[in-house]
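Structure in, sequence out. Go:
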C-alpha cells in the first residue's frame, strides 16, 4: 500500500533519464543544422572572446559538440547555458552576464522578444518539413484562389517558407507571407537561410504590420481582421498567442510532423470569456502579487513600475515576487494574495491558472481591472510593451480632481454580486502613504494599521512559531536521523527497537 503514496528510494537514486533529440549526431549534419559557419562568422566579425550558447532541453545532447566546433573555428571561449531562469524561448541574459559573456547565441524556438543588454544571434535550426504536403493542405483548406490569407509559422520552419511562397504566390495572388524580423537596434541578428525575401513588403500600396517578431503587409483599405491566418507548426504557445491576439481571424494550421492540415477548432470566444472571468477576479482583489516572469525582455522594469502605480491608484495593495519558474506550490505559500499578475514574454503570459489556488492574469487584464478608461472590446493584448507610454494600446490612467482627496465609485461584482468600492487616490496622497503603513484614523491618538499583509496575518489562527525566549530548556545535541527524507535508515523498525538496538550491538 505504501507504493501508492511514495516511490522506492533505491529506484529514485538509480533512475536514468533518457533525453530524446530531433537532431542527428553526425558532424556533417551538425554543421548544417546548427549553422555553425554563420555563427562563427558572427563571432569573428565582431571580435567576441566570450560567447554564451543557450540551448533548450531537447537540444542539450548536442551542446558539447557544437561548443567544441565553435571554439575550434573562432578561438573564443564558449559557455553553455542549459537550465534557463524562465522559459527557454526567452534569452537568458542574466545567466550570460554571470560569466561576463560578450554575446549570446540562442538556439531553437524563440519568442523573438527584444533584449537590450548583450548582442544576440538567433539560430532556429531546421526542422524537417514536406513543402509539397504543406501546399496540398493549403489548397484543400482554401479552395478559393482569391482568398486573403496571411501565412505565419514557427521559427524552426523558417528555412522552408521561401520555397512555400514560391509555390503559392502564382496560384494565390492575395497571400501574404510573414517575414521574421527582430530589433536590430539592440544588436540582435537572425540567420534567415533561404527565408522570405523582404522585397514583397516594400509596396507603397500595402500597410506593413510588425508584431511578435513577424512582419507582413495587408493591402491598403483592409485590416488584419479581414484576412485568414494559416500557421505552419505544431499546436502550442505560439499558436495560442496568435489566436488570442487576432481573435477575429479564422485560423487553420499545418502540422509538419503529421503532415496534416486542419481548421483550428479551439473555441477562442470561450477562451476569451475565461480571461474575462480572471479580469473580474482581479477587480474583486484587494492584494495583488506581481510575478516577475522575465529578466531579459526589454522594458520589463517599466511595466512593473506602471503596474505598481495603477494598482495603488485603484486602491489595492501590491507585492512583487521574483521566484524563477512558477508552479502551484510556490504560489500557494502566499494565501494573503488574491490575484497574481505575470510579467513575461507574450507566449508565456497566457498561463493556464486552473490548477493554482489564485488566478494569474496578464498586465493587460490587470489594467482592465484597474483603469476605468480602458474598456473591454474583445481586443486582447499579450505584449506588455504595447501598454507602455508610446505603445499602440497605451491608455492614460485618469487623474482625479486635485480639490478632491479621494473619489469613490461603487461597482457590482459579477462573481459575488456584492458591491465593491473603486477608489482613485490623488498623487499627493499616494506619495505620502508610501512612507509609512501607519496613518491617523481621526484627530485623536488612535492609529490604524493599513498594511494589508499584516492585517491578514493578524486574522490567522496560526501565525508561526513563537520564540518563547528563556522558557525553553537547553538540551544537549543528540544524533538525528540518517538517510534521505523519503526513507530514513530506521524506518520500518519500532521506536523501542530503534532506541535500544545501538546499545545491544
Amino acid at each position: 500500500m505504501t507504493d501508492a503514496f511514495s516511490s522506492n528510494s533505491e529506484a529514485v537514486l538509480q533512475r536514468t533519464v533518457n533525453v530524446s533529440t530531433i537532431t542527428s549526431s553526425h558532424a556533417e549534419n551538425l554543421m548544417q543544422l546548427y549553422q555553425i559557419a554563420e555563427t562563427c562568422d558572427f563571432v569573428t566579425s565582431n571580435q567576441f572572446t566570450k560567447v554564451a550558447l543557450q540551448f533548450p532541453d531537447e537540444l542539450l545532447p548536442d551542446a558539447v559538440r557544437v561548443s567544441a566546433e565553435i571554439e575550434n573555428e573562432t578561438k573564443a571561449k564558449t559557455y553553455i547555458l542549459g537550465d534557463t531562469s524562465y522559459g527557454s524561448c526567452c534569452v537568458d541574459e542574466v545567466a550570460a552576464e554571470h560569466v561576463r559573456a560578450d554575446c549570446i547565441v540562442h538556439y531553437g524556438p524563440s519568442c523573438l522578444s527584444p533584449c537590450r543588454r548583450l548582442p544576440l544571434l538567433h539560430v532556429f535550426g531546421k526542422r524537417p518539413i514536406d513543402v509539397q504536403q504543406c501546399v496540398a493542405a493549403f489548397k484543400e483548406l482554401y479552395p478559393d484562389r482569391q482568398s486573403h490569407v496571411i501565412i505565419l509559422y514557427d521559427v524552426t520552419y523558417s528555412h522552408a517558407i521561401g520555397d512555400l511562397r514560391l509555390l503559392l504566390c502564382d496560384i494565390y495572388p492575395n497571400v501574404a507571407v510573414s517575414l521574421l524580423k527582430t530589433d536590430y537596434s539592440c544588436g540582435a541578428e537572425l540567420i534567415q537561410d533561404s527565408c522570405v525575401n523582404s522585397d514583397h513588403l516594400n509596396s507603397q500600396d500595402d500597410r506593413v504590420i510588425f508584431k511578435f517578431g513577424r512582419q507582413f503587409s495587408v493591402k491598403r483599405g483592409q485590416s488584419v481582421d479581414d484576412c485568414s491566418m494559416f500557421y505552419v507548426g505544431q499546436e502550442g504557445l505560439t499558436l495560442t498567442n496568435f489566436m488570442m491576439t487576432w481573435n477575429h481571424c479564422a485560423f487553420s494550421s499545418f502540422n509538419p510532423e503529421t503532415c496534416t492540415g486542419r481548421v483550428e477548432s479551439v473555441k477562442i470566444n470561450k477562451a476569451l470569456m475565461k480571461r474575462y472571468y480572471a479580469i473580474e477576479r482581479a477587480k474583486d482583489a484587494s492584494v495583488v502579487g506581481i510575478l516577475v516572469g522575465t529578466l531579459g525582455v526589454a522594458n520589463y522594469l517599466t511595466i512593473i513600475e506602471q503596474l505598481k502605480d495603477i494598482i495603488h491608484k485603484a486602491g489595492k495593495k501590491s507585492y512583487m515576487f521574483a521566484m524563477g519558474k512558477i508552479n502551484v506550490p510556490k504560489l500557494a505559500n502566499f494565501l494573503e494574495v488574491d490575484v497574481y499578475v505575470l510579467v513575461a514574454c507574450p507566449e508565456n503570459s497566457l498561463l493556464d491558472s486552473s490548477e493554482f489556488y489564485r488566478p494569474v492574469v496578464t498586465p493587460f487584464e490587470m489594467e482592465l481591472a484597474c483603469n476605468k478608461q480602458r474598456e473591454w472590446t474583445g481586443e486582447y493584448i499579450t505584449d506588455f510593451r504595447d501598454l507602455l507610454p508610446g505603445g499602440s494600446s497605451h491608455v492614460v490612467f485618469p487623474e482625479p480632481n486635485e480639490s478632491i482627496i479621494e473619489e469613490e465609485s461603487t461597482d457590482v461584482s459579477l462573481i459575488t454580486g456584492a458591491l465593491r468600492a473603486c477608489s482613485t487616490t490623488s498623487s499627493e496622497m499616494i506619495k505620502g502613504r508610501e512612507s509609512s503603513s501607519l496613518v491617523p484614523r481621526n484627530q485623536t491618538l488612535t492609529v490604524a494599521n493599513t498594511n494589508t499583509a499584516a492585517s491578514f496575518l493578524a486574522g490567522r489562527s496560526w501565525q508561526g512559531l513563537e520564540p518563547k525566549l528563556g522558557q525553553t530548556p537547553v538540551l544537549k545535541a543528540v544524533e538525528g536521523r540518517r538517510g534521505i527524507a523519503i526513507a530514513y535508515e530506521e524506518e520500518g523498525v519500532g521506536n523501542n527497537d530503534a532506541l535500544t538496538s545501538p546499545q545491544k550491538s
